[in-house]
Amino acid sequence: MAENLFYFFVFPGLLFAGAIGGMLSWLDRKVTAWVQFRKGPVLLQPFYDFLKLLLVKETIVPSKGSVLTFLSAPVAGLFGASVSAVFILLPAFGITSGFRGDIIVIFYLLTIPSLSWVIGALASGNPLAAVGASREIKLLIGFELTLLLIFAAVIMKSGMSISLYEIIARQQEGGAFIGSLSGVLLFIALVFCIQAKLGFVPFDIAEAETELSEGAFIEYSGPPYAIIKFTKYIMLFILPALAGALLLGGLPVGGISALWSLLKILAVVLLLTLIRNTNPRVKVGQAMRFFLIWMNALVVIAIVLSYLGL
Would you give the distance in Å from CA 88 to the centre of its chain? Predict the structure, then answer.
C-alpha cells in the first residue's frame, strides 16, 4: 500500500511528473521566445507562476452555475493525469511493480483531464466558457478516434499485446517501431494528437485567448487554476513519454540509457514547440476534418503497412 502511494504521489506520479513537466514548460516557452527573438522566462518561471496562483491569488467563484462541480473539476483532472503518469512511466522506465494498467486503461485515463475541464467550464455559467467547452468536445471527437486507431496499430505491431510492458519489451527485442515505415506514419499522427490534447497551436481552439479569453478556463483563478496549470505540466511530460513508450522503444533510466531517454522526450517536446510556432490557429471544423479524414487515413495506411510487415 505504501509503495503504491509513493508511486502515485512522489515518483513517477504527481510530484515527479509535475516537476519534470514544469521544466519542459520552461523549455517550450524559452524556445518560443527564441523563435520570436525574445529573451524568454527564467528557469523556474513555471513554478513561480504555479506558486503565485496557489498561495497568493484569490479564488473567485462565479455567481452562476454549480460551485461544487466548478471547484472539483480541476481536482478530477489532476487525478486522471497523475494516475496516467504512473501507468505510463512505470513501464516506460522499466520499473516492474503491481501498479499495472494496459494501454486501453491509459487511453481512458488520459481523457479525464479534458472531460473534467469541459464539466468545470459548463458548471461556471459563463457563455464564453460554454463555447470553449463545446469546442473542446468537438476536438475530442476528432482526435480521440485517431489516437484509438494508433493504439490499435501498436497492438497489432506488438503481436496483439495490450500491456505497455510487453509492447516496450517487443521493441527492445526487435527494434523500435518507428524504425519501420508504418511506425513513422504512426509517429506523425501521434504527434498531432498530442498537439491537440495539450491544446497547443494550431489546435488551441478551446482556449483561443484572443477570441474567448482562455475559453473553458475563463472563470478560474487562484488555487483551482494552479491545479489546472499543474495538470498541464504533467500532461506535457507524460504524453511525449507515451510516444516514447509506444513507438521509440521505451525510456530506460539505467546508465547511459537515461541520457538517450531524456533526448527522446526533449526531441518530441521541441517538435511540438516548433509546430505551435510555425502554424496559425485553425477553426474547429478544420481541426475535425484534419483528424477524421487525413489523420485517420494516415493511421489506416499504417495499419495496412503493418499487416504487410512494413
Answer: 11
Average pLDDT taken over every residue of the chain: 90
Whether residue 224 has a cis bond before it, omega within 30° of 0: no
Residue 32: pLDDT over 70: yes
- The set of residues, in sequence order, having a beta carbon less than 8 Å from that of 175 and lying 6+ positions away, is 249
Distance CA 81, CA 85 (A): 6
Could you report the per-residue pLDDT of 61-106, keeping only the tens digit for each? Answer: 887 778 899 999 999 999 999 999 999 999 888 887 766 668 999 9
Q: Distance between CA 268 and CA 156 in Å, rounded?
A: 23
C-alpha cell at 174: 526487435
Spatial CA neighbour of 167 closest among 180, 153, 181, 179: 153
Run of H or E residues at 274: helix 257-276
Number of H-type helices and E-type strands within the chain: 14, 0
Contact in structure between 192 and 143 (CB atoms under 8 Å) = yes
Give, as one character, the DSSP assignment of residue 216. G
Give Cα 254 to chain centroid, integer Å: 25
Contact 284, 138 (CB under 8 A): yes
Distance CA(168)–CA(236), nearest Å, equals 21
What does the alpha-carbon distance between residue 109 and residue 91 come to, in Å, rounded to a whole number? 16
Q: Which domain holds residue 121?
A: 2-307
Q: What residue type is 131 in one-letter code?
A: V
Q: What percent of the chain has pLDDT over 70?
A: 96
Q: Give the chain's domain count.
A: 1
Query: Is there a contact between 268 and 240 (Cβ–Cβ < 8 Å)?
Result: yes
Between 60 and 292, the more confident residue is 292
DSSP 43: T
Q: Do 118 and 136 contact (CB within 8 A), yes or no? A: yes
- Tell me the three cell numbers of residue 171: 521493441
**According to the model, what pLDDT value does residue 256 have?**
83
| Cell numbers given for 11 | 515518483
37 vs 192: CA distance, rounded Å: 26
